[in-house]
Amino acid sequence: MEVKAPQLTKQLSKQLHPVYLVHGDETLIVEEALDHIRSAARQAGHSERMVFDVESGFSWSDFAAEAQALSLFSDKKLIELRLPNARISDKGKSICEFCETADGETIVIIRAPRLDKNTQKQAWYKAVEKVGVTTTVWPLKPREVEEWAATHCRKQGKSMDYEALQLLLVKTEGNLLATKQEIDKLCLAIDTPQITLEALVNSIADSARYTIFDLSDNCLKGDVATTSSVFNHLKAEGAELLSLSGMITKEIRTLNILWNYSQSGSMELAFQKAKVWKNKQGLYRSALQRLTKTKLENLLKAAHTLDLSVKGMSDENSWHLFYEICLALAGNHQFTMRKTG
Fold it and tell me: Which residues cross the membrane (predicted)?
């Protein structure tokens, strides 16, 4: 069955299904949904966890064997499948087989980017729908971003007045990862239960240091020296790498989208399709003039490796790789993005 992301927690409290599929483009909301499922699974005794990334070298027979095998311990199993795209080498046969024999002892969580209507008509997707739960995470509308930000603020034990919230969302351009990071910082910096507009403005003035936006803007602008300086300051200040990498990865994805759209239409249409705010269009134009399609594709691959590294699933040094990506995005002609695993 299909369950919307906001209703997933309620569904999990009623019944735990043998398979869950969460797909969509809003990374932070997808992660929140997955965390809810993992938490419910752990509470139900599924504490033996395995993760499979469906990429080059992946074997569906390994997944099938683990899905069918009994746990080595007394605990039940939780298996996560991470799909980088809609293409499945065995056409979903292994997923179908699991759904046919699922007995509740093993739970499978499938994570994927947003799957189109054709993919949702395939047998493996239908099998998941039949015995499990599918959740599609759509990009949030402006009003939904406001509600999400207010909710996240309440989770930190704070409230935020309307004017402060609007200023914050203008500052973060509605990016959820950036909004989360800013709210977390504000909740630590402001002692009062409510974050007012005055408190927000004072906090911004007091923290007139480099921010994630300075890093992003200078990467797009092509200012290699400042990019390097901002990077070093953020790292020294203990900035959260997950948020930093999420923002830069978003910029790389947007540039790839813009490049593709610009080949078949006007840049104005490309900006509209990619949902780029007017005040940043000049920065994207500058980046597209420097970066070739090949370099953009290589940056996207490197960003994927960085994501794995940040999550402890790659031997790459996360900060070193992130620094390389920032320099390459800034377009240092003397710097060549090395191939990553």
Answer: none
